[in-house]
Amino acid sequence: MDWNDNAEQAAFRQQVADFIRERLPAEYRRRAEATDDEGGGEGLFAWYADRVSERQVDRDAAKQWADALAERGWIAPHWPKEYGGASLTTMEQFIFGEEMAKAKAPMVGGSGVMLLGPTVLVHGSEAQKAKYLGRILSGEVAWAQGYSEPGAGSDLGSLQTRAVRDGDEYVINGQKIWTSAAHLSDALFALVRTDPDAPKHRGISFLMIDDIHTPGISVRPLIDASWGHTVNETFFQDVRVPVANLLGEENRGWYVGMTLLDFERSGIGGAVEQRRALAELVDTACTDERSLLDRNRFLRGRIADRALDIEVSYAFSMRIASMQAAGLVPNYEASMGKMFGSEAGQELHRVGMRTFGLHATLWPGDERAPLAGKHTRGYVRSIPSTIAGGSSEVQRNIIATRGLGLPRG
Ligand SMILES: Cc1cc2nc3c(=O)[nH]c(=O)nc-3n(C[C@H](O)[C@H](O)[C@H](O)COP(=O)(O)OP(=O)(O)OC[C@H]3O[C@@H](n4cnc5c(N)ncnc54)[C@H](O)[C@@H]3O)c2cc1C
Q1: Is the pTM here over 0.85, yes or no?
Q2: Could you tell me which of 346, 341, 351 has the C-alpha nearest to residue 378?
Q3: Is the pLDDT of residue 264 over 80?
Protein backbone atom coordinates (compact mmCIF):
# COMPACT_ATOMS: atom_id res chain seq x y z
CA MET A 1 0.00 0.00 0.00
CA ASP A 2 1.46 3.35 -0.94
CA TRP A 3 0.39 6.86 -0.28
CA ASN A 4 0.06 9.38 -3.09
CA ASP A 5 -1.06 12.85 -2.14
CA ASN A 6 -3.60 14.45 -4.42
CA ALA A 7 -2.80 18.04 -5.47
CA GLU A 8 -4.56 19.57 -2.47
CA GLN A 9 -2.87 17.21 -0.01
CA ALA A 10 0.54 17.85 -1.58
CA ALA A 11 0.00 21.59 -1.18
CA PHE A 12 -0.99 21.14 2.44
CA ARG A 13 2.04 18.93 3.11
CA GLN A 14 4.29 21.64 1.64
CA GLN A 15 2.60 24.26 3.79
CA VAL A 16 3.24 22.23 6.96
CA ALA A 17 6.86 21.46 6.00
CA ASP A 18 7.54 25.16 5.24
CA PHE A 19 5.95 26.20 8.52
CA ILE A 20 8.07 23.77 10.53
CA ARG A 21 11.24 24.83 8.70
CA GLU A 22 10.55 28.50 9.40
CA ARG A 23 9.14 28.34 12.92
CA LEU A 24 10.60 25.33 14.77
CA PRO A 25 12.79 26.87 17.50
CA ALA A 26 16.56 26.41 17.16
CA GLU A 27 16.71 24.26 20.31
CA TYR A 28 14.28 21.72 18.79
CA ARG A 29 16.22 21.75 15.50
CA ARG A 30 19.41 21.07 17.42
CA ARG A 31 17.82 18.11 19.22
CA ALA A 32 16.40 16.76 15.97
CA GLU A 33 19.87 16.66 14.43
CA ALA A 34 21.56 14.96 17.40
CA THR A 35 22.13 11.20 16.95
CA ASP A 36 21.58 10.54 20.63
CA ASP A 37 17.96 11.61 20.47
CA GLU A 38 16.20 11.55 23.81
CA GLY A 39 12.67 11.34 22.53
CA GLY A 40 11.81 10.78 18.90
CA GLY A 41 8.48 9.56 17.56
CA GLU A 42 5.50 11.45 18.80
CA GLY A 43 7.31 12.43 22.05
CA LEU A 44 4.08 13.22 23.92
CA PHE A 45 5.75 14.50 27.08
CA ALA A 46 8.84 16.32 25.78
CA TRP A 47 6.88 19.55 25.75
CA TYR A 48 5.65 18.97 29.33
CA ALA A 49 9.24 18.71 30.54
CA ASP A 50 10.39 21.76 28.57
CA ARG A 51 7.64 23.97 30.02
CA VAL A 52 8.97 23.48 33.53
CA SER A 53 12.65 22.88 32.71
CA GLU A 54 15.35 24.58 34.77
CA ARG A 55 16.96 25.67 31.49
CA GLN A 56 15.67 28.94 30.06
CA VAL A 57 16.41 27.72 26.52
CA ASP A 58 13.99 24.78 26.97
CA ARG A 59 11.25 26.96 28.44
CA ASP A 60 11.66 29.48 25.60
CA ALA A 61 11.51 26.71 22.97
CA ALA A 62 8.32 25.26 24.51
CA LYS A 63 6.66 28.68 24.59
CA GLN A 64 7.75 29.80 21.12
CA TRP A 65 6.67 26.53 19.54
CA ALA A 66 3.29 26.56 21.29
CA ASP A 67 2.72 30.16 20.20
CA ALA A 68 3.69 29.39 16.60
CA LEU A 69 1.37 26.37 16.39
CA ALA A 70 -1.45 28.25 18.14
CA GLU A 71 -1.43 30.94 15.42
CA ARG A 72 -2.79 28.33 12.99
CA GLY A 73 -4.89 26.27 15.38
CA TRP A 74 -2.30 23.49 14.97
CA ILE A 75 -1.91 22.73 18.66
CA ALA A 76 -5.17 20.83 18.28
CA PRO A 77 -5.50 20.33 14.53
CA HIS A 78 -8.37 17.86 14.97
CA TRP A 79 -10.54 20.13 17.16
CA PRO A 80 -13.24 22.29 15.56
CA LYS A 81 -12.17 25.81 14.58
CA GLU A 82 -14.80 27.37 16.84
CA TYR A 83 -12.97 25.90 19.85
CA GLY A 84 -9.51 26.97 18.73
CA GLY A 85 -8.57 23.96 16.62
CA ALA A 86 -8.03 23.86 12.86
CA SER A 87 -10.87 21.51 11.79
CA LEU A 88 -8.37 19.56 9.68
CA THR A 89 -9.74 16.61 7.75
CA THR A 90 -8.54 13.16 8.81
CA MET A 91 -6.12 13.03 5.88
CA GLU A 92 -4.76 16.48 6.69
CA GLN A 93 -4.24 15.37 10.31
CA PHE A 94 -2.37 12.34 9.02
CA ILE A 95 -0.13 14.50 6.81
CA PHE A 96 0.39 17.00 9.64
CA GLY A 97 1.42 14.20 12.03
CA GLU A 98 3.77 12.70 9.45
CA GLU A 99 5.53 16.01 8.76
CA MET A 100 5.84 16.78 12.49
CA ALA A 101 7.40 13.36 13.07
CA LYS A 102 9.77 13.72 10.11
CA ALA A 103 11.07 16.97 11.62
CA LYS A 104 11.05 15.50 15.16
CA ALA A 105 8.95 18.52 16.14
CA PRO A 106 7.38 17.99 19.59
CA MET A 107 3.63 17.74 19.94
CA VAL A 108 2.22 20.45 22.18
CA GLY A 109 -0.61 19.94 24.66
CA GLY A 110 -0.25 16.19 25.30
CA SER A 111 -3.10 14.46 27.09
CA GLY A 112 -5.12 17.69 27.30
CA VAL A 113 -5.21 18.03 23.53
CA MET A 114 -5.35 14.34 22.62
CA LEU A 115 -7.61 12.96 25.35
CA LEU A 116 -9.37 15.39 27.66
CA GLY A 117 -10.26 18.17 25.19
CA PRO A 118 -12.15 15.94 22.71
CA THR A 119 -13.98 14.32 25.65
CA VAL A 120 -15.02 17.72 27.05
CA LEU A 121 -16.26 18.58 23.55
CA VAL A 122 -18.55 15.53 23.62
CA HIS A 123 -19.66 15.42 27.27
CA GLY A 124 -18.91 18.88 28.72
CA SER A 125 -21.44 21.60 29.54
CA GLU A 126 -20.95 24.96 27.79
CA ALA A 127 -19.48 26.30 31.05
CA GLN A 128 -16.95 23.44 31.13
CA LYS A 129 -16.00 23.96 27.49
CA ALA A 130 -15.44 27.65 28.19
CA LYS A 131 -13.39 26.89 31.29
CA TYR A 132 -11.17 24.05 30.07
CA LEU A 133 -10.61 24.16 26.32
CA GLY A 134 -8.94 27.58 26.05
CA ARG A 135 -6.48 26.81 28.83
CA ILE A 136 -5.45 23.56 27.18
CA LEU A 137 -4.86 25.36 23.88
CA SER A 138 -2.85 28.21 25.34
CA GLY A 139 -0.47 25.70 26.92
CA GLU A 140 -1.38 27.17 30.29
CA VAL A 141 -2.48 23.86 31.80
CA ALA A 142 -0.89 20.44 31.19
CA TRP A 143 -3.07 17.43 32.11
CA ALA A 144 -2.20 13.97 33.43
CA GLN A 145 -4.43 10.90 33.11
CA GLY A 146 -5.44 9.07 36.30
CA TYR A 147 -7.12 5.84 35.23
CA SER A 148 -4.94 2.87 36.26
CA GLU A 149 -4.62 1.61 39.82
CA PRO A 150 -2.44 -1.13 41.33
CA GLY A 151 -5.35 -3.60 41.05
CA ALA A 152 -6.96 -2.11 37.94
CA GLY A 153 -5.02 -1.86 34.68
CA SER A 154 -6.25 -4.13 31.89
CA ASP A 155 -9.34 -4.68 34.02
CA LEU A 156 -9.90 -0.97 34.55
CA GLY A 157 -13.50 -1.43 35.68
CA SER A 158 -12.18 -2.81 38.99
CA LEU A 159 -10.86 0.59 40.08
CA GLN A 160 -11.34 1.40 43.77
CA THR A 161 -10.36 5.05 44.27
CA ARG A 162 -13.37 6.37 46.11
CA ALA A 163 -15.14 9.74 45.76
CA VAL A 164 -17.86 10.51 48.33
CA ARG A 165 -20.18 13.44 47.84
CA ASP A 166 -20.14 16.02 50.63
CA GLY A 167 -22.37 19.01 49.75
CA ASP A 168 -20.93 20.76 46.71
CA GLU A 169 -17.76 18.72 46.77
CA TYR A 170 -16.45 15.19 46.28
CA VAL A 171 -13.91 13.87 48.76
CA ILE A 172 -11.41 11.53 47.10
CA ASN A 173 -9.36 8.79 48.76
CA GLY A 174 -7.26 6.15 47.03
CA GLN A 175 -4.37 5.62 44.67
CA LYS A 176 -3.57 5.79 40.97
CA ILE A 177 -0.47 4.32 39.34
CA TRP A 178 1.50 4.80 36.12
CA THR A 179 0.30 8.41 35.94
CA SER A 180 2.53 9.63 33.10
CA ALA A 181 4.08 13.05 33.58
CA ALA A 182 2.02 13.80 36.72
CA HIS A 183 5.15 15.43 38.19
CA LEU A 184 5.26 17.81 35.21
CA SER A 185 1.50 18.46 35.05
CA ASP A 186 -0.77 21.09 36.53
CA ALA A 187 -4.00 19.11 36.59
CA LEU A 188 -5.29 15.55 36.46
CA PHE A 189 -8.46 13.88 35.19
CA ALA A 190 -9.46 10.69 36.94
CA LEU A 191 -11.97 7.88 37.02
CA VAL A 192 -13.26 7.37 40.57
CA ARG A 193 -15.81 5.10 42.21
CA THR A 194 -18.88 7.00 43.35
CA ASP A 195 -21.22 4.05 43.94
CA PRO A 196 -19.51 0.97 45.43
CA ASP A 197 -22.78 -1.01 45.45
CA ALA A 198 -23.53 -0.69 41.74
CA PRO A 199 -22.26 -3.24 39.14
CA LYS A 200 -18.63 -2.32 38.62
CA HIS A 201 -18.91 -0.31 35.39
CA ARG A 202 -21.96 1.60 36.61
CA GLY A 203 -20.57 3.16 39.79
CA ILE A 204 -17.74 5.17 38.23
CA SER A 205 -17.51 8.93 37.64
CA PHE A 206 -15.11 11.15 35.67
CA LEU A 207 -13.62 14.04 37.64
CA MET A 208 -11.36 16.89 36.54
CA ILE A 209 -8.98 17.97 39.29
CA ASP A 210 -7.92 21.46 38.28
CA ASP A 211 -4.88 21.68 40.52
CA ILE A 212 -2.64 18.67 41.01
CA HIS A 213 -1.08 20.50 43.97
CA THR A 214 -4.40 20.46 45.87
CA PRO A 215 -3.79 19.48 49.53
CA GLY A 216 -4.00 15.70 49.94
CA ILE A 217 -2.53 14.78 46.53
CA SER A 218 0.98 13.39 46.51
CA VAL A 219 2.88 12.34 43.42
CA ARG A 220 5.76 9.89 43.85
CA PRO A 221 8.19 8.95 41.07
CA LEU A 222 8.55 5.47 39.59
CA ILE A 223 12.00 5.28 38.01
CA ASP A 224 12.10 3.06 34.93
CA ALA A 225 14.75 0.57 33.79
CA SER A 226 16.55 3.27 31.79
CA TRP A 227 16.76 5.48 34.89
CA GLY A 228 14.14 7.72 33.31
CA HIS A 229 11.26 9.33 35.16
CA THR A 230 8.00 9.46 33.20
CA VAL A 231 5.51 7.57 35.35
CA ASN A 232 4.36 8.06 38.93
CA GLU A 233 2.18 6.85 41.73
CA THR A 234 -0.46 9.40 42.71
CA PHE A 235 -2.10 9.24 46.14
CA PHE A 236 -5.30 10.97 47.28
CA GLN A 237 -6.10 11.64 50.92
CA ASP A 238 -9.32 13.56 51.59
CA VAL A 239 -8.91 15.56 48.38
CA ARG A 240 -11.80 17.97 47.82
CA VAL A 241 -13.03 18.63 44.29
CA PRO A 242 -16.09 20.73 43.38
CA VAL A 243 -19.08 18.80 42.00
CA ALA A 244 -18.95 21.25 39.06
CA ASN A 245 -15.83 19.38 37.92
CA LEU A 246 -17.77 16.22 37.17
CA LEU A 247 -17.67 15.50 33.42
CA GLY A 248 -20.91 13.87 32.26
CA GLU A 249 -23.29 12.32 34.77
CA GLU A 250 -22.43 10.85 38.17
CA ASN A 251 -21.96 7.05 37.92
CA ARG A 252 -21.84 7.24 34.10
CA GLY A 253 -18.13 8.02 34.05
CA TRP A 254 -17.18 4.68 32.50
CA TYR A 255 -18.81 5.75 29.24
CA VAL A 256 -17.24 9.22 29.44
CA GLY A 257 -13.86 7.62 30.07
CA MET A 258 -14.25 5.27 27.15
CA THR A 259 -15.13 8.12 24.77
CA LEU A 260 -11.66 9.32 25.44
CA LEU A 261 -10.18 6.02 24.36
CA ASP A 262 -12.15 6.17 21.11
CA PHE A 263 -9.96 8.94 19.74
CA GLU A 264 -7.57 6.48 18.20
CA ARG A 265 -4.43 7.79 16.62
CA SER A 266 -3.00 6.51 13.38
CA GLY A 267 0.41 5.84 14.94
CA ILE A 268 2.11 7.45 11.95
CA GLY A 269 4.69 9.17 14.19
CA GLY A 270 6.05 5.81 15.33
CA ALA A 271 6.29 4.50 11.76
CA VAL A 272 8.16 7.62 10.61
CA GLU A 273 10.59 7.30 13.51
CA GLN A 274 11.21 3.62 12.75
CA ARG A 275 11.87 4.35 9.08
CA ARG A 276 14.43 7.00 10.04
CA ALA A 277 16.10 4.72 12.60
CA LEU A 278 16.34 1.86 10.08
CA ALA A 279 17.98 4.08 7.42
CA GLU A 280 20.52 5.19 10.00
CA LEU A 281 21.16 1.60 11.13
CA VAL A 282 21.71 0.38 7.55
CA ASP A 283 24.16 3.18 6.96
CA THR A 284 26.11 2.53 10.16
CA ALA A 285 26.03 -1.26 9.76
CA CYS A 286 27.84 -0.82 6.42
CA THR A 287 30.43 1.72 7.58
CA ASP A 288 31.13 1.25 11.29
CA GLU A 289 34.04 -1.06 12.03
CA ARG A 290 32.20 -2.41 15.09
CA SER A 291 29.37 -3.71 12.92
CA LEU A 292 29.00 -7.51 12.78
CA LEU A 293 27.45 -7.44 9.30
CA ASP A 294 30.38 -9.36 7.76
CA ARG A 295 30.57 -11.86 10.61
CA ASN A 296 26.94 -12.69 11.37
CA ARG A 297 25.28 -14.24 8.33
CA PHE A 298 21.79 -13.87 9.81
CA LEU A 299 22.03 -10.14 10.37
CA ARG A 300 21.25 -8.99 6.83
CA GLY A 301 18.01 -10.97 6.85
CA ARG A 302 16.98 -9.66 10.25
CA ILE A 303 17.60 -6.08 9.13
CA ALA A 304 15.58 -6.78 5.97
CA ASP A 305 12.72 -8.07 8.14
CA ARG A 306 12.62 -4.70 9.87
CA ALA A 307 12.06 -2.99 6.51
CA LEU A 308 9.02 -5.25 6.04
CA ASP A 309 7.75 -4.40 9.53
CA ILE A 310 7.99 -0.71 8.79
CA GLU A 311 6.04 -1.03 5.54
CA VAL A 312 3.32 -2.92 7.43
CA SER A 313 3.27 -0.27 10.20
CA TYR A 314 2.80 2.41 7.54
CA ALA A 315 -0.02 0.41 5.97
CA PHE A 316 -1.77 0.08 9.36
CA SER A 317 -1.46 3.82 9.97
CA MET A 318 -2.90 4.61 6.57
CA ARG A 319 -5.70 2.11 7.05
CA ILE A 320 -6.77 3.74 10.33
CA ALA A 321 -6.64 7.23 8.79
CA SER A 322 -8.56 6.03 5.71
CA MET A 323 -11.26 4.44 7.86
CA GLN A 324 -11.68 7.61 9.89
CA ALA A 325 -11.79 9.67 6.68
CA ALA A 326 -14.63 7.42 5.50
CA GLY A 327 -16.55 8.07 8.73
CA LEU A 328 -15.79 4.63 10.20
CA VAL A 329 -14.55 4.04 13.76
CA PRO A 330 -11.45 1.83 13.84
CA ASN A 331 -11.90 -0.95 16.35
CA TYR A 332 -9.85 -4.16 16.17
CA GLU A 333 -7.96 -2.47 13.31
CA ALA A 334 -6.57 0.04 15.82
CA SER A 335 -5.55 -2.88 18.07
CA MET A 336 -3.69 -4.46 15.16
CA GLY A 337 -1.85 -1.21 14.43
CA LYS A 338 -0.95 -0.53 18.06
CA MET A 339 0.22 -4.05 18.74
CA PHE A 340 2.18 -4.46 15.54
CA GLY A 341 3.81 -1.01 15.69
CA SER A 342 4.94 -1.34 19.31
CA GLU A 343 6.32 -4.87 18.81
CA ALA A 344 8.06 -3.80 15.58
CA GLY A 345 9.67 -0.88 17.44
CA GLN A 346 11.09 -3.23 20.07
CA GLU A 347 12.39 -5.62 17.42
CA LEU A 348 14.11 -2.82 15.53
CA HIS A 349 16.03 -1.83 18.64
CA ARG A 350 16.84 -5.47 19.39
CA VAL A 351 18.33 -5.90 15.90
CA GLY A 352 20.07 -2.52 16.29
CA MET A 353 21.81 -3.93 19.36
CA ARG A 354 22.68 -7.26 17.71
CA THR A 355 24.34 -5.39 14.86
CA PHE A 356 27.05 -4.26 17.26
CA GLY A 357 27.45 -7.34 19.45
CA LEU A 358 29.01 -6.64 22.83
CA HIS A 359 29.42 -2.95 21.97
CA ALA A 360 25.66 -2.75 22.39
CA THR A 361 26.08 -3.14 26.12
CA LEU A 362 27.51 0.40 26.22
CA TRP A 363 25.09 3.02 27.44
CA PRO A 364 24.65 6.54 25.98
CA GLY A 365 27.31 8.83 27.33
CA ASP A 366 30.06 6.26 26.68
CA GLU A 367 31.93 7.50 23.63
CA ARG A 368 32.56 3.91 22.48
CA ALA A 369 28.80 3.23 22.18
CA PRO A 370 27.73 2.72 18.52
CA LEU A 371 25.13 5.25 17.36
CA ALA A 372 25.61 6.94 20.74
CA GLY A 373 23.85 4.02 22.46
CA LYS A 374 20.60 4.80 20.69
CA HIS A 375 19.40 1.20 20.32
CA THR A 376 20.54 0.14 23.77
CA ARG A 377 18.53 2.80 25.52
CA GLY A 378 15.83 2.60 22.85
CA TYR A 379 15.31 -1.09 23.55
CA VAL A 380 15.02 -0.60 27.30
CA ARG A 381 12.64 2.31 26.77
CA SER A 382 10.54 0.44 24.24
CA ILE A 383 9.64 -2.35 26.67
CA PRO A 384 6.66 -0.51 28.24
CA SER A 385 5.27 0.32 24.78
CA THR A 386 3.68 -3.14 24.56
CA ILE A 387 1.96 -2.55 27.93
CA ALA A 388 0.93 1.14 27.98
CA GLY A 389 -2.35 1.99 26.32
CA GLY A 390 -3.49 -1.67 26.42
CA SER A 391 -1.03 -4.57 26.49
CA SER A 392 -0.29 -6.77 23.48
CA GLU A 393 -2.20 -9.64 25.14
CA VAL A 394 -5.27 -7.44 25.52
CA GLN A 395 -4.94 -6.27 21.89
CA ARG A 396 -4.75 -9.92 20.77
CA ASN A 397 -7.93 -10.64 22.73
CA ILE A 398 -9.67 -7.79 20.90
CA ILE A 399 -8.45 -8.99 17.51
CA ALA A 400 -9.52 -12.56 18.33
CA THR A 401 -13.00 -11.69 19.58
CA ARG A 402 -14.07 -8.53 17.72
CA GLY A 403 -11.96 -9.08 14.62
CA LEU A 404 -12.22 -12.84 14.11
CA GLY A 405 -15.37 -13.64 16.07
CA LEU A 406 -13.61 -16.20 18.29
CA PRO A 407 -15.32 -16.88 21.63
CA ARG A 408 -14.07 -15.10 24.76
CA GLY A 409 -11.59 -17.14 26.79
C1 LIG B 1 4.86 3.63 30.30
C2 LIG B 1 3.44 3.56 30.79
C3 LIG B 1 2.68 4.71 30.87
C4 LIG B 1 1.38 4.65 31.35
N5 LIG B 1 0.67 5.82 31.49
C6 LIG B 1 -0.55 5.79 32.09
C7 LIG B 1 -1.23 7.00 32.40
O8 LIG B 1 -0.74 8.12 32.12
N9 LIG B 1 -2.42 6.93 33.03
C10 LIG B 1 -3.00 5.73 33.35
O11 LIG B 1 -4.09 5.74 33.90
N12 LIG B 1 -2.37 4.56 33.07
C13 LIG B 1 -1.16 4.57 32.46
N14 LIG B 1 -0.49 3.38 32.20
C15 LIG B 1 -1.09 2.13 32.64
C16 LIG B 1 -1.45 1.17 31.54
O17 LIG B 1 -2.64 1.54 30.90
C18 LIG B 1 -1.53 -0.21 32.22
O19 LIG B 1 -0.22 -0.55 32.64
C20 LIG B 1 -2.04 -1.27 31.32
O21 LIG B 1 -3.39 -1.07 31.09
C22 LIG B 1 -1.78 -2.67 31.93
O23 LIG B 1 -2.27 -2.75 33.23
P24 LIG B 1 -1.39 -3.33 34.43
O25 LIG B 1 -0.06 -2.68 34.38
O26 LIG B 1 -2.20 -3.21 35.67
O27 LIG B 1 -1.18 -4.87 34.10
P28 LIG B 1 -2.22 -6.05 34.30
O29 LIG B 1 -3.55 -5.64 33.76
O30 LIG B 1 -2.16 -6.48 35.72
O31 LIG B 1 -1.61 -7.14 33.39
C32 LIG B 1 -0.52 -7.99 33.80
C33 LIG B 1 -0.23 -8.96 32.67
O34 LIG B 1 -1.37 -9.78 32.44
C35 LIG B 1 -1.79 -9.68 31.09
N36 LIG B 1 -3.25 -9.71 31.02
C37 LIG B 1 -4.11 -8.93 31.72
N38 LIG B 1 -5.39 -9.21 31.38
C39 LIG B 1 -5.33 -10.18 30.43
C40 LIG B 1 -6.30 -10.89 29.68
N41 LIG B 1 -7.62 -10.64 29.82
N42 LIG B 1 -5.86 -11.80 28.77
C43 LIG B 1 -4.54 -12.06 28.58
N44 LIG B 1 -3.57 -11.43 29.29
C45 LIG B 1 -3.95 -10.50 30.19
C46 LIG B 1 -1.25 -8.35 30.60
O47 LIG B 1 -1.06 -8.32 29.19
C48 LIG B 1 0.08 -8.27 31.34
O49 LIG B 1 1.06 -8.99 30.65
C50 LIG B 1 0.82 3.40 31.72
C51 LIG B 1 1.57 2.23 31.62
C52 LIG B 1 2.89 2.30 31.17
C53 LIG B 1 3.69 1.03 31.09
Answers
A1: yes
A2: 346
A3: no
